[in-house]
Amino acid sequence: MTSLLSLLIFGLAILGHTTLWISLVNRVHARPINERWLRQIRHLHDLSIIAFPPLLVWLAGFQGPRLLNGGSWSDLGLFWGGVFIICGLGCVWLTYVVARHQLAPQPRPQRHQSTRVLDVAGEFGERPIAPGPYHVLATLPLNEQFTVEISEKTFELPRLPPALHGLTLWHLSDWHLLGTIERRYYERVTAEIAASPADLICFTGDLIDRMECLDWLPSTLGRLTARFGKFFILGNHDWYQHPETIRDRLRQLGWQDVASQVRTLSINGVELAIGGDETPWMGTVPDFSLVPEEQPRLLLSHTPDNIHRAQRQQIDLMLSGHNHGGQIQLPIVGPIYSPSRYGCKFSAGSFWLKPTLLHVSRGLAGQHPLRWHCRPEVTRITLHCPADRLISNHRSSAQPASSQPVIAR
Fold it and tell me: pLDDT tens digits for 252-290?
Protein backbone atom coordinates (compact mmCIF):
# COMPACT_ATOMS: atom_id res chain seq x y z
CA MET A 1 0.00 0.00 0.00
CA THR A 2 1.42 3.39 -0.98
CA SER A 3 2.59 5.85 1.65
CA LEU A 4 0.03 8.41 0.47
CA LEU A 5 -2.84 5.96 0.94
CA SER A 6 -1.51 4.95 4.34
CA LEU A 7 -1.42 8.59 5.39
CA LEU A 8 -5.01 8.98 4.20
CA ILE A 9 -6.11 6.00 6.27
CA PHE A 10 -4.34 7.39 9.33
CA GLY A 11 -6.04 10.75 8.78
CA LEU A 12 -9.46 9.10 8.51
CA ALA A 13 -8.76 7.07 11.66
CA ILE A 14 -7.97 10.25 13.58
CA LEU A 15 -11.13 11.89 12.22
CA GLY A 16 -13.23 8.87 13.18
CA HIS A 17 -11.72 8.75 16.68
CA THR A 18 -12.53 12.44 17.18
CA THR A 19 -16.09 11.90 15.95
CA LEU A 20 -16.68 9.06 18.40
CA TRP A 21 -15.43 11.11 21.36
CA ILE A 22 -17.60 14.07 20.39
CA SER A 23 -20.63 11.77 20.02
CA LEU A 24 -19.98 10.36 23.49
CA VAL A 25 -19.60 13.79 25.11
CA ASN A 26 -22.77 15.05 23.42
CA ARG A 27 -24.80 12.20 24.82
CA VAL A 28 -23.28 12.28 28.30
CA HIS A 29 -24.24 15.96 28.59
CA ALA A 30 -27.86 15.02 27.91
CA ARG A 31 -27.97 13.21 31.27
CA PRO A 32 -28.60 14.62 34.76
CA ILE A 33 -24.96 14.36 35.82
CA ASN A 34 -23.31 16.69 38.32
CA GLU A 35 -21.42 19.53 36.65
CA ARG A 36 -18.18 18.53 38.38
CA TRP A 37 -18.26 15.08 36.77
CA LEU A 38 -19.15 16.54 33.40
CA ARG A 39 -16.10 18.77 33.63
CA GLN A 40 -13.89 15.72 34.25
CA ILE A 41 -15.37 13.95 31.24
CA ARG A 42 -14.66 17.00 29.08
CA HIS A 43 -11.05 17.01 30.28
CA LEU A 44 -10.72 13.34 29.33
CA HIS A 45 -12.26 14.14 25.95
CA ASP A 46 -9.78 16.97 25.38
CA LEU A 47 -6.79 14.84 26.39
CA SER A 48 -7.85 11.90 24.23
CA ILE A 49 -8.41 14.01 21.11
CA ILE A 50 -5.02 15.73 21.51
CA ALA A 51 -3.01 12.63 22.45
CA PHE A 52 -4.46 10.08 20.02
CA PRO A 53 -2.96 11.39 16.72
CA PRO A 54 0.72 11.40 17.80
CA LEU A 55 0.30 8.10 19.65
CA LEU A 56 -1.32 6.46 16.62
CA VAL A 57 1.35 7.74 14.24
CA TRP A 58 4.20 6.70 16.51
CA LEU A 59 2.92 3.36 17.83
CA ALA A 60 1.30 2.12 14.60
CA GLY A 61 3.20 4.12 12.01
CA PHE A 62 6.80 3.81 13.19
CA GLN A 63 6.64 1.11 15.87
CA GLY A 64 4.72 -2.17 15.99
CA PRO A 65 3.31 -2.78 12.49
CA ARG A 66 5.35 0.22 11.15
CA LEU A 67 2.60 1.13 8.71
CA LEU A 68 4.25 4.45 7.79
CA ASN A 69 7.76 3.02 7.68
CA GLY A 70 7.71 0.10 5.29
CA GLY A 71 5.34 -2.20 7.20
CA SER A 72 2.50 -4.13 5.58
CA TRP A 73 -1.20 -3.65 6.30
CA SER A 74 -1.61 -7.41 5.93
CA ASP A 75 0.44 -7.82 9.13
CA LEU A 76 -1.73 -5.41 11.09
CA GLY A 77 -2.65 -7.76 13.92
CA LEU A 78 -5.79 -8.09 15.98
CA PHE A 79 -5.31 -5.05 18.26
CA TRP A 80 -4.46 -2.48 15.61
CA GLY A 81 -6.99 -3.99 13.26
CA GLY A 82 -9.64 -3.39 15.88
CA VAL A 83 -8.49 0.20 16.44
CA PHE A 84 -8.71 1.05 12.74
CA ILE A 85 -12.09 -0.67 12.36
CA ILE A 86 -13.60 1.23 15.30
CA CYS A 87 -12.21 4.53 14.01
CA GLY A 88 -13.56 3.65 10.56
CA LEU A 89 -17.01 3.28 12.05
CA GLY A 90 -16.60 6.81 13.42
CA CYS A 91 -15.96 8.04 9.87
CA VAL A 92 -19.08 6.26 8.63
CA TRP A 93 -21.11 7.92 11.38
CA LEU A 94 -19.68 11.32 10.51
CA THR A 95 -20.63 10.84 6.86
CA TYR A 96 -24.21 10.03 7.89
CA VAL A 97 -24.44 13.06 10.21
CA VAL A 98 -23.15 15.46 7.55
CA ALA A 99 -25.55 14.03 4.94
CA ARG A 100 -28.46 14.36 7.38
CA HIS A 101 -27.55 17.98 8.04
CA GLN A 102 -27.26 18.85 4.36
CA LEU A 103 -30.43 17.05 3.27
CA ALA A 104 -32.70 18.15 6.14
CA PRO A 105 -35.93 19.50 4.59
CA GLN A 106 -37.82 22.57 5.73
CA PRO A 107 -40.59 21.40 8.06
CA ARG A 108 -43.95 21.19 6.31
CA PRO A 109 -45.84 23.49 8.74
CA GLN A 110 -43.36 26.37 8.28
CA ARG A 111 -44.90 28.96 5.99
CA HIS A 112 -42.56 31.93 6.37
CA GLN A 113 -39.23 32.92 7.84
CA SER A 114 -37.37 36.21 7.86
CA THR A 115 -34.39 37.40 9.88
CA ARG A 116 -32.54 40.58 10.64
CA VAL A 117 -29.37 41.08 12.63
CA LEU A 118 -29.07 43.30 15.67
CA ASP A 119 -25.39 44.30 15.90
CA VAL A 120 -25.15 45.05 19.61
CA ALA A 121 -21.37 45.49 19.62
CA GLY A 122 -21.65 47.81 16.63
CA GLU A 123 -24.19 49.99 18.41
CA PHE A 124 -22.08 50.16 21.56
CA GLY A 125 -18.84 50.73 19.67
CA GLU A 126 -17.29 47.81 21.57
CA ARG A 127 -18.02 44.29 22.70
CA PRO A 128 -19.84 44.38 26.05
CA ILE A 129 -17.42 42.05 27.85
CA ALA A 130 -16.65 41.98 31.58
CA PRO A 131 -13.73 40.11 33.21
CA GLY A 132 -15.85 37.06 34.06
CA PRO A 133 -15.37 33.33 33.37
CA TYR A 134 -14.17 32.46 29.85
CA HIS A 135 -13.96 36.15 28.92
CA VAL A 136 -11.01 35.42 26.59
CA LEU A 137 -13.37 33.45 24.33
CA ALA A 138 -15.58 36.51 23.94
CA THR A 139 -12.63 38.49 22.56
CA LEU A 140 -11.69 36.04 19.79
CA PRO A 141 -11.84 37.25 16.17
CA LEU A 142 -14.98 36.55 14.12
CA ASN A 143 -16.98 35.82 17.27
CA GLU A 144 -20.68 36.39 16.43
CA GLN A 145 -21.87 36.37 20.04
CA PHE A 146 -22.74 40.07 19.90
CA THR A 147 -24.70 40.03 16.64
CA VAL A 148 -28.16 38.75 17.53
CA GLU A 149 -30.51 37.30 14.94
CA ILE A 150 -34.09 38.49 15.34
CA SER A 151 -36.20 35.82 13.63
CA GLU A 152 -39.82 35.96 12.47
CA LYS A 153 -41.41 32.59 11.71
CA THR A 154 -44.92 31.58 10.74
CA PHE A 155 -46.16 28.05 11.40
CA GLU A 156 -49.40 26.49 10.23
CA LEU A 157 -50.49 23.97 12.85
CA PRO A 158 -52.98 21.36 11.58
CA ARG A 159 -55.08 21.31 14.78
CA LEU A 160 -55.00 25.03 15.59
CA PRO A 161 -58.55 26.40 16.07
CA PRO A 162 -59.59 29.37 13.90
CA ALA A 163 -59.98 31.44 17.07
CA LEU A 164 -56.20 31.24 17.57
CA HIS A 165 -55.29 32.12 13.98
CA GLY A 166 -52.70 34.87 14.19
CA LEU A 167 -51.59 34.10 17.76
CA THR A 168 -48.06 35.41 18.31
CA LEU A 169 -45.41 34.40 20.81
CA TRP A 170 -41.81 35.15 21.58
CA HIS A 171 -39.63 32.10 22.09
CA LEU A 172 -36.69 32.98 24.35
CA SER A 173 -34.14 30.52 25.68
CA ASP A 174 -30.68 30.05 27.16
CA TRP A 175 -29.69 33.53 28.30
CA HIS A 176 -26.99 32.16 30.64
CA LEU A 177 -26.52 35.23 32.84
CA LEU A 178 -22.94 34.75 34.00
CA GLY A 179 -21.34 38.17 34.18
CA THR A 180 -18.89 37.73 31.32
CA ILE A 181 -21.34 39.33 28.90
CA GLU A 182 -22.41 42.64 30.40
CA ARG A 183 -25.95 43.40 31.54
CA ARG A 184 -26.40 46.08 28.88
CA TYR A 185 -26.24 43.39 26.16
CA TYR A 186 -29.33 41.69 27.60
CA GLU A 187 -31.06 45.02 28.20
CA ARG A 188 -30.56 45.97 24.56
CA VAL A 189 -32.02 42.70 23.33
CA THR A 190 -34.90 43.07 25.80
CA ALA A 191 -35.71 46.48 24.32
CA GLU A 192 -35.81 44.92 20.85
CA ILE A 193 -38.24 42.25 22.03
CA ALA A 194 -40.44 44.81 23.83
CA ALA A 195 -40.68 46.86 20.63
CA SER A 196 -42.63 44.00 18.96
CA PRO A 197 -45.26 42.87 21.50
CA ALA A 198 -46.68 39.37 21.31
CA ASP A 199 -49.64 37.52 22.82
CA LEU A 200 -47.40 35.13 24.76
CA ILE A 201 -43.78 35.01 25.85
CA CYS A 202 -42.20 31.63 26.53
CA PHE A 203 -38.79 31.08 28.13
CA THR A 204 -37.39 27.55 27.90
CA GLY A 205 -34.64 27.45 30.49
CA ASP A 206 -30.97 28.09 31.33
CA LEU A 207 -31.36 31.59 32.68
CA ILE A 208 -28.76 31.84 35.44
CA ASP A 209 -25.14 30.66 35.53
CA ARG A 210 -24.15 32.89 38.44
CA MET A 211 -26.57 33.77 41.22
CA GLU A 212 -25.22 37.33 41.53
CA CYS A 213 -26.87 37.99 38.16
CA LEU A 214 -30.37 37.60 39.63
CA ASP A 215 -30.28 41.37 40.12
CA TRP A 216 -30.25 41.71 36.32
CA LEU A 217 -33.77 40.30 35.93
CA PRO A 218 -35.86 43.45 36.68
CA SER A 219 -34.19 45.38 33.84
CA THR A 220 -34.30 42.45 31.40
CA LEU A 221 -37.02 39.78 31.53
CA GLY A 222 -38.91 41.81 34.13
CA ARG A 223 -39.53 44.58 31.57
CA LEU A 224 -41.38 42.34 29.14
CA THR A 225 -45.16 42.13 28.92
CA ALA A 226 -47.50 39.92 26.91
CA ARG A 227 -51.23 40.09 26.28
CA PHE A 228 -52.01 36.61 27.58
CA GLY A 229 -49.06 36.00 29.88
CA LYS A 230 -45.38 35.11 30.27
CA PHE A 231 -44.50 31.47 30.92
CA PHE A 232 -41.22 29.82 31.87
CA ILE A 233 -39.37 26.66 32.79
CA LEU A 234 -35.78 26.25 33.99
CA GLY A 235 -32.89 24.22 32.56
CA ASN A 236 -29.88 22.21 33.64
CA HIS A 237 -27.70 25.27 34.29
CA ASP A 238 -30.36 26.64 36.62
CA TRP A 239 -30.32 23.21 38.29
CA TYR A 240 -26.59 23.66 38.94
CA GLN A 241 -27.41 26.89 40.82
CA HIS A 242 -30.40 27.51 43.15
CA PRO A 243 -33.48 26.80 41.02
CA GLU A 244 -36.11 27.59 43.63
CA THR A 245 -34.62 31.02 44.23
CA ILE A 246 -34.61 31.66 40.49
CA ARG A 247 -38.26 30.57 40.23
CA ASP A 248 -39.30 32.86 43.05
CA ARG A 249 -37.62 35.85 41.44
CA LEU A 250 -39.28 35.23 38.08
CA ARG A 251 -42.69 34.81 39.71
CA GLN A 252 -42.22 38.13 41.49
CA LEU A 253 -41.67 39.69 38.06
CA GLY A 254 -44.98 38.37 36.72
CA TRP A 255 -43.76 35.19 35.01
CA GLN A 256 -45.82 32.00 35.37
CA ASP A 257 -44.01 28.76 36.18
CA VAL A 258 -45.40 25.79 34.19
CA ALA A 259 -42.75 23.23 35.18
CA SER A 260 -44.11 19.71 35.78
CA GLN A 261 -47.70 20.84 35.24
CA VAL A 262 -50.29 21.74 32.65
CA ARG A 263 -52.13 25.05 32.78
CA THR A 264 -55.13 26.09 30.73
CA LEU A 265 -55.23 29.51 29.15
CA SER A 266 -58.46 30.91 27.71
CA ILE A 267 -58.00 32.96 24.53
CA ASN A 268 -60.97 34.23 22.52
CA GLY A 269 -63.21 31.57 24.01
CA VAL A 270 -60.77 28.75 23.18
CA GLU A 271 -58.66 26.95 25.76
CA LEU A 272 -54.94 26.40 25.15
CA ALA A 273 -53.08 23.86 27.30
CA ILE A 274 -49.54 24.92 28.27
CA GLY A 275 -47.19 22.47 29.97
CA GLY A 276 -43.56 22.53 31.09
CA ASP A 277 -40.98 19.73 31.10
CA GLU A 278 -37.64 20.17 32.91
CA THR A 279 -36.74 16.49 32.89
CA PRO A 280 -34.31 14.78 33.11
CA TRP A 281 -32.83 17.34 35.52
CA MET A 282 -35.80 18.45 37.59
CA GLY A 283 -39.45 17.73 38.26
CA THR A 284 -41.78 15.32 36.52
CA VAL A 285 -43.35 14.94 33.11
CA PRO A 286 -46.42 17.20 32.69
CA ASP A 287 -49.63 15.18 32.42
CA PHE A 288 -51.70 16.07 29.36
CA SER A 289 -53.98 13.03 29.75
CA LEU A 290 -56.86 15.13 31.13
CA VAL A 291 -56.69 17.66 28.31
CA PRO A 292 -59.57 17.21 25.82
CA GLU A 293 -58.40 15.70 22.55
CA GLU A 294 -59.45 18.68 20.44
CA GLN A 295 -57.71 21.23 22.69
CA PRO A 296 -54.43 22.66 21.27
CA ARG A 297 -51.31 21.87 23.29
CA LEU A 298 -48.13 23.88 23.79
CA LEU A 299 -45.13 22.33 25.56
CA LEU A 300 -42.09 24.11 26.95
CA SER A 301 -39.27 21.56 27.25
CA HIS A 302 -35.71 22.64 27.94
CA THR A 303 -34.20 19.80 25.94
CA PRO A 304 -35.56 18.69 22.55
CA ASP A 305 -34.73 15.12 23.59
CA ASN A 306 -38.29 14.87 24.95
CA ILE A 307 -39.73 15.16 21.44
CA HIS A 308 -40.94 11.57 21.08
CA ARG A 309 -42.82 11.76 24.37
CA ALA A 310 -44.36 14.99 23.11
CA GLN A 311 -45.54 13.13 20.01
CA ARG A 312 -47.26 10.53 22.17
CA GLN A 313 -48.90 13.33 24.17
CA GLN A 314 -50.25 14.87 20.94
CA ILE A 315 -48.39 18.14 21.49
CA ASP A 316 -49.00 20.63 18.68
CA LEU A 317 -46.04 22.92 19.31
CA MET A 318 -42.97 22.13 21.41
CA LEU A 319 -40.48 24.88 22.25
CA SER A 320 -36.95 23.94 23.34
CA GLY A 321 -33.42 25.25 23.69
CA HIS A 322 -30.40 23.68 25.41
CA ASN A 323 -28.37 22.84 22.29
CA HIS A 324 -27.44 26.40 21.23
CA GLY A 325 -27.21 25.37 17.59
CA GLY A 326 -23.83 23.92 18.50
CA GLN A 327 -22.44 27.49 18.94
CA ILE A 328 -19.74 26.61 16.38
CA GLN A 329 -20.78 25.38 12.94
CA LEU A 330 -18.32 24.27 10.27
CA PRO A 331 -18.94 24.69 6.55
CA ILE A 332 -20.66 21.59 5.11
CA VAL A 333 -20.32 19.68 8.39
CA GLY A 334 -22.61 21.97 10.39
CA PRO A 335 -22.75 21.86 14.22
CA ILE A 336 -20.30 19.66 16.11
CA TYR A 337 -21.16 19.80 19.81
CA SER A 338 -24.76 19.45 20.93
CA PRO A 339 -25.63 18.08 24.42
CA SER A 340 -28.33 15.69 23.24
CA ARG A 341 -29.09 11.99 23.06
CA TYR A 342 -29.54 12.60 19.35
CA GLY A 343 -26.26 14.44 18.89
CA CYS A 344 -26.66 17.37 16.50
CA LYS A 345 -29.93 16.18 14.97
CA PHE A 346 -31.98 18.78 16.89
CA SER A 347 -29.25 21.36 17.46
CA ALA A 348 -31.47 24.26 16.32
CA GLY A 349 -34.32 25.11 13.98
CA SER A 350 -37.75 23.64 13.25
CA PHE A 351 -38.65 19.97 12.89
CA TRP A 352 -41.93 18.31 11.96
CA LEU A 353 -42.50 15.01 13.75
CA LYS A 354 -46.21 14.52 13.25
CA PRO A 355 -48.31 15.62 15.10
CA THR A 356 -45.68 17.81 16.82
CA LEU A 357 -43.82 20.79 15.46
CA LEU A 358 -40.56 21.24 17.40
CA HIS A 359 -38.81 24.60 17.48
CA VAL A 360 -35.30 24.66 18.99
CA SER A 361 -33.81 28.06 19.77
CA ARG A 362 -30.09 28.74 19.43
CA GLY A 363 -30.39 30.79 22.60
CA LEU A 364 -29.05 34.24 23.40
CA ALA A 365 -25.78 33.30 25.09
CA GLY A 366 -23.93 30.39 26.67
CA GLN A 367 -21.56 29.52 29.47
CA HIS A 368 -18.82 29.76 26.84
CA PRO A 369 -19.36 33.10 24.99
CA LEU A 370 -18.15 31.97 21.58
CA ARG A 371 -20.15 31.61 18.36
CA TRP A 372 -18.95 31.03 14.81
CA HIS A 373 -21.46 30.71 11.97
CA CYS A 374 -24.14 30.33 14.65
CA ARG A 375 -25.53 33.64 15.84
CA PRO A 376 -27.57 33.88 19.05
CA GLU A 377 -31.26 34.38 18.42
CA VAL A 378 -34.66 35.37 19.73
CA THR A 379 -37.68 34.27 17.72
CA ARG A 380 -41.15 35.73 17.25
CA ILE A 381 -43.57 33.03 16.09
CA THR A 382 -46.97 33.53 14.47
CA LEU A 383 -49.39 30.59 14.44
CA HIS A 384 -51.81 30.03 11.60
CA CYS A 385 -54.82 27.79 11.25
CA PRO A 386 -55.09 25.72 8.01
CA ALA A 387 -56.97 27.56 5.29
CA ASP A 388 -59.73 24.96 5.02
CA ARG A 389 -60.52 25.28 8.73
CA LEU A 390 -60.59 29.06 8.46
CA ILE A 391 -62.97 28.95 5.49
CA SER A 392 -65.22 26.45 7.22
CA ASN A 393 -65.30 28.57 10.35
CA HIS A 394 -66.07 31.74 8.38
CA ARG A 395 -68.94 30.07 6.56
CA SER A 396 -70.44 28.69 9.74
CA SER A 397 -70.28 32.12 11.37
CA ALA A 398 -71.61 33.87 8.22
CA GLN A 399 -68.40 35.84 7.82
CA PRO A 400 -66.61 36.35 4.51
CA ALA A 401 -63.53 34.22 3.95
CA SER A 402 -61.40 37.36 3.67
CA SER A 403 -62.04 38.52 7.24
CA GLN A 404 -59.09 39.37 9.46
CA PRO A 405 -57.59 36.98 12.03
CA VAL A 406 -59.47 36.82 15.28
CA ILE A 407 -56.46 37.97 17.27
CA ALA A 408 -55.98 41.58 16.27
CA ARG A 409 -52.85 43.57 16.73
Answer: 999 999 999 999 999 999 999 999 999 999 999 999 999
CB atoms within 10 A of CB 42: 13
pLDDT of 393: 72
Region of 66 (left: φ > 0; alpha: ψ -120 to 50; beta: rest) is left
CA angle, 258 then 209 then 351, to 5°: 55
pLDDT in tens, 58-81: 999 999 999 999 888 988 899 999
Virtual torsion, Cα 288, 293, 299, 303, nearest 10 deg:
70
The full set of domains in the chain, from first to last, is 3-103 (no CATH), 110-392 (3.60.21.10)
Non-local CB neighbours of 41 within 8 Å, separated by 6+ positions:
25, 28
Say what the pTM is. Answer: 0.93
